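Methods, example record. To illustrate the input and output format used throughout this study, we show the complete record for Sodium:proton antiporter. The sequence lines were provided to the predictor; the line carrying structure tokens was produced by it.
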Amino acid sequence: MYPSDLRPSPHSETLAARSAHGEPGPRGQDPRSTALSIVRSEPEAATAPPDPRDLRRVQRVRKAVLAVAILAFLLVAAVTRPLLNEGALTGLLPGIGVLALFTAIIGRAWCSLYIGGRKTREIVATGPYSISRNPLYVFSFLAAFGVGAQTGSLVLAAAAVGLAVVILGATIRREEAWLSSAFGEAYGAYSARTPRFWPRWSAWRDDTLLEIRPARFVTTLLDGAFMLMAVPVMAGLARARATGIVPTWLVLP
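The corresponding predicted structure is encoded as:
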């Protein structure tokens, strides 16, 4: 799907043909003035589509900022002991977090089957993208909770989600501005009927066939699997605090 204003309409082509053969334009208008008006109006109507490289630059910035945020989060988590670090409830929050991580990994891979490299060429509005404009990011928020939950602290789990919402939210706004510029009214109509995040299940529609790009699917799957590293990393930090290798500066619920 491309912006409609990049394709000349049949009506304009007819006018150009009439002018070229010296036929009168609408309402007996001089063919030379008709041709002149067409020549003048075409550069104004046709605008160059946004450069897909702009969208890739947004993604590179998002990854860089996210990397810094993850490092900062790990430093805080290293010196923070959860308030409930003993008893039957000790592993409850981390266990819920692992479930959230697996759900996020599967969900992100599912979304990649539909979006895989198509974002800059067309509006993807089927499957998970028929009920939410950003299902891939919704699963990323769930993954952030799963990572934060491995600390055993509800406060840090909420902080991880908050960081993801702030960083990815800025990326989403820039992506939506690019898509609106690229696809115009078509994207506006899609945005009007599809929620930004929370799914509208009644709007579900699907494709009978999908063109799958295996490389992108595998990349998304591996990116998601990398998040499972939070489980051994947080467990190692907990042991380091328990043995005194890492000091405890904060105690949070």
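Annotations derived from this record:
DSSP finds nine helices and two strands in the chain.
The longest helix spans residues 154-183.
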